[in-house]
Amino acid sequence: MEAVEGWILDVYPGKDGEMVAWVKKGDGAAVRLTDSWRNAIYVSCSATEGLGELAEWAVHQYLVHSCEYVLRRVNVFEYGKRQVLKLTLRDAERAERLAKEIEQLDSKHRFAIFNADLMPAQAYFFEKELFPLARVRAEQAGARIRWELLDSVMSEDYRIPPLKKASIQVRVRSSGRIPKFSDPIDRITVKTVEGTVEISEGSERQKILSLVDSIAQADPDIIFIEKGDGFTTHYLADRAWRNGIQDRLILSRDRVPIRRLANRGTSYMAYGRVLHTPTSHKLYGRINLDAENYFVFSECGLDGLFEIGRLCRMPLHKGSRASIGKCLSSLQSYVAYKEDLLIPWKPSRAEIPKTAKTLLVGDRGGFIYEPKVGLHENVGEVDFTSLFPFIMTKYNISAETVLCRCCPDSKTRVPGVGYHTCEKRYGLIPKSLEPILTKRLNYKKKKKETDD
């Protein structure tokens, strides 16, 4: 197969030992490629015999394809490498399942598990030095893909492929004020650049199949689904099941139907409030967006989503649904990965113990000085651009650099508390923040210089 030049639209695990990649070409066509690749987790143990015991167990484990000993950093506070066990998975998406199996082993040894909650697409991007919407030249060479990167995450004047968009709106013939899964479909509206298709005639089965045909004919790259994760995709899956066509509800480019899910969301407590995160359906080879419920897309639009996906190496489906903190964690994970530093599955390190006085002096980040009440003249305002991130990058503030053991005589001191920061090594957090701050400053500068 001859080389394909275009942009990486989507990657995801396919069949056993395979990663599927869709490349969007400049002429609008999308090409499907497959790469021989397997995901892996890592396990360390303080006792050498513990890893040997685990290796023997892994040979007979149905989730494990192979295992080998490798050298990796297991602690951000240590720069030397240790011998760990690399467990390569049969199914790329069963990493956490394998981690739980190891956690429940009846063993006298304690195992530390790493990289178990990295998404397969993230791990693939990290390993191959790729990112979403990267411009590439790709060639299918047998079971492998030969990648040539023609782009950079630090580029600010990058091109985006011609992406076709479609939107889906489903109206329910509701028997009450709140639509239920037991209510039938009233009509479905599909909007594309070419026009609007109103699906309201025929049986419910015919309406669902007409939706599938409309999407296949339009062949969009991005699908906006109204109330998608919270209701619509789950409702469509349920109605298709009730009509006996659950295997024919296909909105992906790959022939993967949308299935009914046992778990349609997760509720959790945060800052005194109960929040709910609905479970999303991935569309394989397309990007499924729900603009109503997610921060990155609702705040920044498509351009912001593309920038975050590229810079943080976050798959667009997940990036549109993630908090900014989770996206930045992806960037930190990439920096760690490139330094052979493993990412703990369940980190549990506590803060450095502090006296009450140190806590009072040092923990004033959000302190606000109340102004005197009254009318004041000649008042100035000082706005610090990205103050905390700039402080962290300039003064090398990171978990492993504050109060480091190698530089007790460091000249860089935290005012008031006397903590020092490392002068020999640059920390993980500053390394992660630096590209973001650089791009942000450059974008702001360009914005001031242009009239467009």
Task: Walk me through what this model shows.
It is globular and about 80 Å long. The mean pLDDT is 91. The two termini are 42 Å apart. A hairpin with a 2-residue loop joins strand 11 and strand 12. It has a 5-stranded antiparallel beta sheet. Strands 12-11-10-13-16 form a 5-stranded mixed beta sheet, with helices on one face. The chain has a 4-stranded antiparallel beta sheet with strand order 5-6-4-7, covered by helices on one side. It is built from 11 helices and 16 strands. It is an alpha+beta fold. It is 30% helix and 23% strand. The longest helix has 22 residues. It folds into 3 domains: 161 residues, DNA Polymerase, Chain A, domain 1 (2-Layer Sandwich); 174 residues, Nucleotidyltransferase, domain 5 (2-Layer Sandwich), CATH 3.30.420.10; 73 residues, no CATH class.
